[in-house]
Sequence to fold (515 residues):
Amino acid sequence: MTLARAYSVALVGVQGHLVEVEADIASGLPATILVGLPDTALREARDRIRAAIVNSGETWPAAKITVGLSPAALPKRGSGFDLAIAVAILAAAEAVPASALAGKMFLAELGLDGRLRPVPGVLPAVVAGACGAETVVVAAQNAEEAALVPGVKVIGASSLAEVIIWLRGGPEPPPAPAVVPGPPYGPAPARTAVRKLDLADVLGQAEARLAAEICAAGGHHLSLLGPPGAGKTMVAERLPTILPGLAASAAIEVTSIHSVAGRLPPGMGLITMPPFCAPHHTATKAAIIGGGTGVICPGQASLAHHGILFLDEAPEFHRDVLDALRQPLESGEVVIARAGTQAVFPARFTLVLAANPCPCAKAAGPGRSGCSCSPAARRRYLARISGPLLDRVDVKVRLQPVSRRDMLYDRKFAESSAVIAQRVAAARERAAARLAETPWRMNAEVPGTALRRSFAPAAGALTCLDRAMELGQVSARGTDKIIRVAWSLADLAGQDRPGADQVNLAIGLWLGVTQ
Ligand SMILES: Nc1ncnc2c1ncn2[C@@H]1O[C@H](COP(=O)(O)OP(=O)(O)O)[C@@H](O)[C@H]1O
Ligand SMILES: [Mg+2]
Fold:
């Protein structure tokens, strides 16, 4: 009867921390004690593990078993430690050699019959465990996901019995199927084909299409204001069709978040396209920002990391939801504090808002016939988003009802998503090359100080912007946003530096007065 050690990983947010599981078997009255601040789910693990070991044909040691999970201060949640605890107990009981556990990490839940069950968050857990272990043992259903991390040997097993045989020197459980990751970078032909959406479907809204292109090029936030049926939802839904794919590191980050949220379908592989999240306006703050009891789950703002968060009918969202979005918009992450824990989820998304100009939603037609809202009611309605969010939106478009003539014209000449996506990809490459020595990749990410110090527009280009500031039309935050958008316009035009034309167009886009 001895002491044995196995390793697992605890997730706090999307950050994995290596956990050491020690099992000690001493003579004394038969009892099992778990120490190391485990939550309720972990205490339930005791009974699950006992059943799993017995049902795998092994004997449960009739002695005093103490299991410690350290570091003790780390909050350990969920059922992913089951397998590590089981093998540590078996090794302490000398049912498997303790030396066989070295260099391995165990990450699976156990069923009462000894089956290995998949757990959420395997990808970030393996990323964290890769520093300490060469081999990772997971449930067969998680093997594909674990294998996305390069340089780690993955053992996907279906039962505890299989793992025990392997630890005793027997055959390995069947190897995890090879995954072919998607292209690391490039336009999005697959998604366009699957969803059959194309920006060319949006007729007569040249300005909204241009705004979508600018926002895709620089990662700028976009708002679409206009009467119902003008095509706001259409434009937003087609934004992903012109975005480039995710870079390799971004793909791992995005897939990790979706994995922690338990939203990664088996066999999905890496998410290589920017995610598109469109929560309904009745969504709660926890659904958008993240939270939940027990295991802290990422919300839509984090699921949209490196992609788009689309709030359709934005003024209808709860005020506290809209207010809560300010934190991720400023810092690019969501911090959720709980007693004794703080989880940080990345949330650097492009915000797209759509809104009708009034609550009755009848403001269609050139004369706004049918709308009976008073000017005060309209102002109040839009004020619900204007305070917290609209100041942070870089490009504001006012859509007009589509005319028949524009529709007929665009049906022939509107550019397809494939053509626009090429320009966007080229613009992103220009920006990335310019920002190569910096931590940023897109114009929207460059902070104001760096913008003024290292990336100032051409001399003389800022005359109108200075004037707009003097007149009090543009705030200091607005100035930075305008210069960022001007850079994106220059990148799209293939220019080295924004000139007066681009800065002036960016002022119009920020003020939302280009039409
Ligand atoms: N600009 C447009 N070009 C082509 N079809 C349009 C356009 N605007 C609206 N439609 C049609 O009307 C429907 C509703 O459009 P939608 O984008 O939901 O409007 P909104 O969100 O502005 O209320 C679309 O599915 C489409 O069939
Ligand atoms: Mg709509």
Q: What stands out?
A: The longest strand covers residues 15-26. The two ends are 81 Å apart (CA to CA). DSSP finds 20 helices and 18 strands in the chain. Residues 417-434 form the longest helix (18 residues).
